[in-house]
Structure formats: C-alpha cells, structure tokens
C-alpha cells in the first residue's frame, strides 16, 4: 500500500514536469484519491481518431506497480480492441504482459499506439474487427470517424 | 549423450520383451496353457478350467511351486516397464542434468537450469538447439552472453520500479543493465512466485528486456517460504514437463513414475501400493480403455452440481484439459502457464489455425459451420439422451460402486490379515508364517479381481446395445467371473475362520492350503483371460458370431439355469486321463487338482 502510494506520487510529480513534453497525454489524478486517475489522450494523426480527445479512466490496485492498473475508455470509440459498450480494452500489457516498469504514462502511450495499430485478430468489437478483416478499410475508417465526431469532438457552435 | 540414448533404446527393447512375459503370466506353466489356448481358439474362457488334458501335470506343478513363484512374480512386476522415483531421486536426476548441461556448454548452473526448463528438461533437446544456433537459443531464453556493461559511472541511479534514487552498489540487475532496488526486486519476485509456476521463466522487469532471472537471484532475494515454493515448482516442472514421468495420483504420495513409452500395458503400481493407469492417471482400469474410463468417471460426477456448473460455465483447455472460465475479453484465449496454449473459445481449435482461411476470428466460422451441420447439437442431444437413460446407468453404476466398496473392504481385510491374523494362525496351526503366504496371495487376488470386476461394469455400460451376441457373451463371462470370485472370497474369508479359531493344529489344514491356492490360481487365470478378452473387444464373437451364435446362447442359457458353474452340474463324463503319477486327479470342469481319495471335486463339486 505504502509502496504503491509512493510510486504513484513519483508518477504524479513526473507528470507535472512532463506535461509540456508530451502534449498528446494529459494525466490527472483524482483530487481525493491517488488510486483514481483520468487521462485525456489525443487521437493519433492519420487515423480516423485524429482530432478527437478521448477520456480514459484508471483504477490503480493496491499492489501497483506489481499488478497492472485497470483502464477503460470513458469516451465512446469504434475500435476492434475496445468494447463498444463498456470501454474495456484488450491489450496484452494490461493483462499478462504487464511489467512493473510500465507507468501510467507509458500505458497511455501504448493505448495511443493501439489506436493507430488496431489488432483485429483479438477483437472485442466484432463489427469493427470484421470490417478490417474483410479488408473494408474504408468502411472501418468512416465508422470510426463518425463515432470520433459524435463522441470525441467538442460540439461546434 | 548419444551413448546414453542408445542405452535407453536398448532398455526399451528389453522391457517390451519382458512385457510380453508379463501378459502371459510370467510363469512357464501358465504360458504353456496360454499358448495352447491361443493357438487352438481364443474362445475358451469358459472351458479353461478343464478342457486341455495335456495341462494336467503343468497345473499340478503350478500349484506345488506356487508359493515359491509368487515372490518372483511380484518382484519382476515392479521392475517391468516403469521406475518409481522418490522426491530425492527426482532431485538427484535434476541436479545431474543441470550439471551435465552446465559442464558441456560451460555455462553457470542457473543458466543451465533455465535452459533445461525451456526445453522440457530434455538434455538432448538442449544440446541440439544450442549447437544448432547458440545465439538464437540465448536470446529465446534470456541468457546473455556477457553481462552488459553497467553504467556505473554515476554514483547514484534510479530504481526503474519505485523511481527512488539509490547508490549504484545497492541496486541489482539480472544479466542486463536494468537496475532495480532490493525492495522492488523482492516484491517482483514474490508476486511472480505466488502467481504460479510461471515464475520459473521470470525475466527482467523491464518490458523491452528478456534477461532471465535465475535461481541465484531467487535464493538471494526471496523469503524462505517463497524459496520453498520456487523449489517445488522447479521439482514439479521436472516431472510435469517430461513426457515420460508422471506423479502418482494417490493422495499424500510424493512419488513419480517414469514409464517406458510404448511398452504395452499402462497399469503401474507405485511404491505406495496404489495402482494406476500411467496414461490417464485414473486408477488401474484394465480391461477398460482410458477413453471409456474418462467417459465413465465424467458420467459418475456429471450428476453433481459442481460438474453441472463447470459444464455450463467453463470449457476445458483443448491441450491441458484444465477447465477454463471465460470472464471477459475476446475469443482469443491463452491458457495459464505452463500450458499457454492459444485457442479459440468458440470452436476450441488452435488459434494458429484461425485466419483469413477459416473466415474470421470473432464469430468463428468453423463453429458456425459445425453448428449448422449439427455437430454441437448432436453433442447436446446425446447429453440429453444420457440423462433420460439414467435408469440404465444407475444399474451399472450401483454394481460398479458396490464392487468398489467390496474392494475397499477386501483391502482392509488384507491388511488385517497381514497385521493380525497371520501371526495368530501361524501359532494355532504351528505353521511358519512363510508357509502361509498363500493366504495373503489369495487376498491380493481378491482385491485385484474386485478391481477388474468393477471396471467390467463400466465396460458393460458402453457395450453397444445392438450387439446382442456380444452383450450376452459378456454377461455370461461376467457372471462366471463373479461366481468364481465369490467362491474364492468365501473360502478365504469363512473357511479360514475355522482354522483360525480352532484350538490346535487342524489335520486338514494342508487340504485347505491346496484348495485356497488352487482357487487363487484358477481365479487368476480366469480373470486374466477375461481381461484379455475384453481388451480385444470380444473380437472372437465377431468372427465366430455365425457359427457360435447357437452354442453361445446355449452356454449362456444353461449357465442361467444352473445359476453359475459349480452348483450342481449335470455333466457326468469321467476322464481317466486326467490323473497324474500320484493318483491325484484334475477336475474336468475347473481343472482343480484333487487328491486321489475324493470322488467329487473339492472345488466345484463336479463328480470325477
């Protein structure tokens, strides 16, 4: 408990310093609970998520960093490896490939990388996976783009 | 190492030959009989007792020598095609293998251990792989050639887990340059050890680094309790990764059994005296095959709520068969270490078979197609039908279970006999205990027969309904076996009591000895033939179905009428040939050798 708190505090200070260095990620610690974090990540360019801002919710276990944090999308997103309803993410480093050397920041980076390179072979969102697997890149992109506009962009006007 | 291999091969051949011997009973007299029976016609289980006139002398010798031979049989059985390994033996072998690899490849013992673990403890595989491509192997298992030069120019460095700064010399790394503090190392190692046997493949915590964390690190950093766990995992992996060694499944038994693969019967007996099938690790189940046993065992537990839950909510890993519950995530499943098999949740096929070809991943087309073809519905319907025929099942199950409990009882009686009664009997009858071994052997035979009989009920349950001849013949054989066993059991239990409770040596004790020993050998023969016949799937019924249909029916019919052989046979033929020099005569019906003075068989009351 103490170790995880200390480590999270280190990460917190690191985040404060790096804020400018990585403009794509904005990690915020809950005011009253250091085990709850949220992140705003920018959709990577040259993807259908470009221009969108996606919100992630982190729930950090007491065994952190020996155990991975639980992360899910709060913003609706159309992506093969993200559950369309719950926002659950299928990513190996959040499950069995976790290493204590990862940080919340690096998890965000991994998620951005996942957005740019979907893994349709292990899909949580079958419709999205099906489009990609059947080679309908355009269909996938337009769906993803539509949901980015609907859910991840500030309303115009 | 090749020489060792050769030796191994030689051993295998030797054991296979020995195995043949075992099947035919291991005793020459019996072998003669078997050969003859086999050569003439396999259809002689029911006649074995008396049809072969030439066997008389053999049979007589057999009984006379019986107590001498008994030891050899038991001794040779345990040295057949398997070896019992105690924990120390396993550890010793493991150490030897590690030493071998460590010396031949000139690498530290920890590295040798990791290497062996990666290649399932096969010294040969390690050699092959290593000498084929050392670089690749090193990379795959994480043994770096030279410890990377550590950046120790600085006095202080940051632990990459807790991000605290420490003096360089208080940080550690595996064979790489990634430094972590002891507290983080300890937590990392402890988490991994408590996560399961995956800790044997522990790597440097840095995600980009594959450097292996060996036994030496564990020893330095883990608490005693975890070290012990790690040691046990390591020991277990030696047995569980090997394709030739399996643990004895008896509760509380720590031994393992190494089996010469491909050497015939899978039945082995551990040093704890538990007999089990090496192939499926259920208890010994000849004559029934492993598949039937698995079905039967599953069936027996299928009625329980537990099993219903597991059936409804989990699927067995297609590779290691552990039940897996899917609680979240996609259809791409990865079994937990050490199995790590990747498969599709829907069709349970290997994940590597999935791809464009099979049409997709998430709504697995193989599954859809199979479902449309009715494969899965079929399985469902079968399950339903099985539930409906519960009554039929109960019939077989009750008999299976009652033989099981009879066997337990007999086992307890055997122990009591060995520990209490034998001594008393020896005193009452003034016989040295060594002369009373025939009683123990009788009881051992009873225990074995109960086991076989038990499994014949599982066999009977799965015998196809429509094969009437087979079924009839099977039931006849089973009935005979049961009757024979009852006779033996009766003799060893009730009749023995008279001698046990008498005031002084009984005159006819020697007769009793001859009778019980004879019954034991006759029953043994009968059961061995029975086992062989059932293992052949009663194949002679197929070949002789036409010509024997009538006669087999008659046999079955008459046996029912008589209520089993032995109780008032109507056969009155006499055979003068069935006598030997001393005038003792072998019963026509059951082959039992009677003393000259009696005119009805001591065993089956058949008249001479």
TrEMBL record, chain A:
Protein name as catalogued: E2 ubiquitin-conjugating enzyme
Classification via Gene3D superfamilies: Ubiquitin Conjugating Enzyme
GO BP annotation list: peroxisome organization
Domain UBC core: 3-153
Active site, per annotation: 90
EC class of the enzyme, as a word: transferase
PROSITE patterns named in the record: UBC_1 (PS00183), UBC_2 (PS50127)
UniProtKB/TrEMBL annotation, chain B:
RING-type domain span: 155-368, 159-203
Enzyme Commission number(s) from the entry: 2.3.2.31
GO biological process, one term: protein ubiquitination
Gene3D superfamilies: 1.20.120.1750, Zinc/RING finger domain, C3HC4 (zinc finger), Zn-finger domain of Sec23/24
Annotated catalysed reactions: [E2 ubiquitin-conjugating enzyme]-S-ubiquitinyl-L-cysteine + [acceptor protein]-L-lysine = [E2 ubiquitin-conjugating enzyme]-L-cysteine + [acceptor protein]-N(6)-ubiquitinyl-L-lysine
Every RanBP2-type domain range: 581-608
Ranges of biased composition (kind: Acidic residues): 15-57
Cofactor(s) essential for the protein: Zn(2+)
Coiled coil: 369-396
GO MF term (any one): ubiquitin protein ligase activity
Alphabetical keyword list: Coiled coil, Metal-binding, Repeat, Transferase, Ubl conjugation pathway, Zinc, Zinc-finger
Functional pathway: Protein modification; protein ubiquitination
Chain spans, region Disordered: 1-57, 554-579
Catalytic class of the enzyme: transferase
PANTHER family the UniProt entry points to: RBR FAMILY RING FINGER AND IBR DOMAIN-CONTAINING (PTHR11685)
Protein function: Might act as an E3 ubiquitin-protein ligase, or as part of E3 complex, which accepts ubiquitin from specific E2 ubiquitin-conjugating enzymes and then transfers it to substrates.
Family indicated by similarity: Belongs to the RBR family. Ariadne subfamily.
Protein name: RBR-type E3 ubiquitin transferase
Organism: Sesamum alatum
